[in-house]
Backbone:
């Protein structure tokens, strides 16, 4: 088992990574619980595979639990989902010192985290992420949210978990398409500031996606340690450090909005195409070598991820796509900060480029 820490002073917390950890979780969780009782929240896909092993492990440590199984999918991260969950937690007699276990992907992690930020004015939660996206990104860093009719993740809070427990073997049951979407976020860490890791992805990405457990473990540990470092440096995204995690997201957000935030394009798939567009836009503006943009496109194409507007299934004009970007929640004083790059591993934040320039680029 590997262990690292998100260094946030009094709110620091451990991330444990190890094959089979779900079956041994009770031993790791018991020391932090204030009483031998917890509540597990999950979705029905994940419950089918992991609720019993996790519950059995808690039971072996004398920890009693109740469980709440929600519908899978983005629709659960909603006002209705939040109301059901908070009322259930209160009905279960949750106390402020209690820890709720979020067992699932980013939907469950974001919803449970937000619920725990407000129930009893704040209780604790433990992330047990079961998708690659959640294992390398959403379970760490304390961004929690629900979607509202005006947009995704518009209502939420920063609320750090007390512990993150990652069992990479859970990826064995994850559909291949979801694995690919999570892999885009792995590649992102190389593109942000780690050219060596991008080269590792080029060499090992296909094996990882085919189920190679050593490659999977290395990718998760490397990604999560990059995320822990970034969050420790800029927890609330006020210094243009954490914002780098949004590489590819502004372009990707336009593609997701255009495809109706639906199964036509998963979030990670949109990020994949968005990262290629961010590199190509940088190259078109003389910031980044065009060979680097081509390398990014070729790698993502080689693992069957969207790498262009066409492969993302979008053929809308640039002005319409840029208009979606104007509604991005990152807009500051009317300007949208873009994450651009000087080359692989050299990304930076800038608001020098207007959406008209982005629209013209997308039309070419
Ligand atoms: P998800 O939680 O919807 O999971 C994807 C699908 O896989 C679901 O059907 C789920 O039931 C199923 N699943 C999960 N684990 C499984 C497993 N091990 N075996 C079989 N099926 C499994 O999607 P996601 O991609 O994990 O998360 C997406 C969400 O994460 C979005 O709402 C996004 O906004 C959010 N997000 C948050 C952050 C953050 O920092 N908080 C970062 C990125 C994304
Ligand atoms: N996933 C972006 C962030 O955590 O900041």
Residues:
């Amino acid at each position: 088992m590997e262990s690292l820490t998100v260094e946030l002073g009094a709110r620091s917390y451990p991330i444990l990574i190890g094959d089979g950890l779900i079956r041994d979780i009770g031993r790791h969780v018991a020391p932090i619980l204030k009483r031998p009782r917890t509540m597990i929240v999950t979705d029905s896909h994940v419950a089918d595979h992991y609720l019993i092993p996790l519950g059995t492990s808690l039971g072996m440590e004398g920890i009693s639990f109740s469980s709440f199984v929600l519908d899978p999918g983005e629709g659960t991260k909603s006002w209705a989902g939040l109301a059901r969950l908070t009322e259930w937690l209160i009905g279960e007699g949750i106390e402020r010192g209690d820890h709720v276990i979020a067992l699932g992907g980013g939907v469950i992690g974001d919803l449970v985290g937000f619920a725990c930020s407000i129930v009893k004015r704040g209780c604790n939660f433990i992330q047990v992420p079961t998708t690659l996206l959640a294992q390398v990104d959403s379970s760490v860093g304390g961004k929690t949210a629900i979607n509202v009719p005006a947009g995704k993740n518009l209502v939420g809070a920063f609320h750090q978990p007390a512990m993150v427990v990652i069992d990479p073997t859970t990826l064995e049951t994850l559909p291949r398409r979801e694995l690919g979407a999570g892999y885009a976020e792995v590649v992102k860490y190389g593109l942000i500031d780690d050219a060596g890791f991008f080269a590792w992805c080029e060499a090992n990405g296909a094996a990882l996606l085919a189920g190679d457990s050593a490659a999977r473990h290395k990718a998760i540990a490397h990604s999560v340690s990059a995320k822990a470092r970034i969050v420790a440096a800029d927890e609330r995204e006020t210094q243009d450090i954490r914002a780098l995690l949004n590489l590819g997201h502004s372009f990707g957000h336009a593609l997701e909005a255009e495809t109706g935030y639906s199964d036509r394009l998963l979030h990670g798939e949109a990020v994949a195409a968005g990262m290629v567009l961010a590199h190509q836009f940088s190259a078109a503006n003389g910031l980044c070598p065009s060979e680097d943009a081509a390398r990014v496109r070729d790698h993502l194409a080689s693992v069957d991820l969207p790498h262009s507007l066409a492969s993302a299934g979008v053929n809308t004009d640039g002005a319409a796509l840029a208009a979606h970007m104007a509604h991005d929640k990152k807009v500051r004083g009317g300007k949208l900060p873009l994450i651009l790059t000087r080359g692989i591993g050299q990304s930076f934040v800038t608001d020098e480029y207007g959406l008209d320039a982005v629209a013209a680029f997308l039309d070419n």
About this structure: The two ends are 49 Å apart (CA to CA).
